[in-house]
Write a structure and sequence with these properties.
Blueprint lengths: L3 H10 L7 E4 L20 E7 L10 H16 L6 E3 L3 E4 L2 E13 L2 E11 L13 H5 L5 H20 L3 H10 L7 E6 L2 E10 L5 E5 L2 E5 L4 E6 L3
Antiparallel strand pairs: 1-2, 2-6, 3-4, 4-5, 5-6, 7-8, 7-11, 8-9, 9-10
Amino acid sequence: CGSTQDVAKEFIEKGLRDGTVVICEEMSEGRGRKGRKWIAEKGGLWLTLIRSPPSGRGMHLVGLAAGLAVAATIRDLFPQINPCVKWPNDVYLNGKKLAGILTEAQQIGNSLRFLFVGVGVNLNNEAPFPSSISLKDIVKEEVDTEVFLHRFLERFGKYYDLVLKGLQNELVNEVKKVSCDIGKYVKIIKEGEVVSGTVLDIGDDGSLILEVDGKTISVLEGDVTHVRYVST
């Protein structure tokens, strides 16, 4: 298909509703945050979850919930592997990108109608870039896509429910346990400006909390176009 996100939006117009999962074997027009191209060849897991939350409360945390679900699924199936969640929307393994998350919303007026949670995981495909990695390359065997998918959906459902119940602090605490970022010195492009500092924490609202020139600041996902680790 072109993009699972676009197919999901087409399905909505045909009457499909909350909980639908759209899966493609490969995508010719996959995309990430800020419209970046996402290479999605056969062997990977490329999907979009359609959710219709009762309100927009906490929905900015769903991307983190999906990333956490990917990391938790890998740990469930391969306990010897320790992936981490890179704020705001990636999963890394051995310093390389394993998965990415894209959330897009459809609104009516000021009300959130649908949330489209795009998830791309390099499972059995060739890693598309030197900076990326495939799970198969690490475990040295073919990964069962259906088993991975079902476990991921279970994990995501659990974390999504935390958001719906207003228990976002519990979700964020789980993210902190597998964070790639805390303690790292990073360079962030925020609204066109470069901000460099040490990551101190992740706030209950999902913001990244940094120490910059002796001051503590917090940044939200929507304000950031890029996060890069910097050697000090």
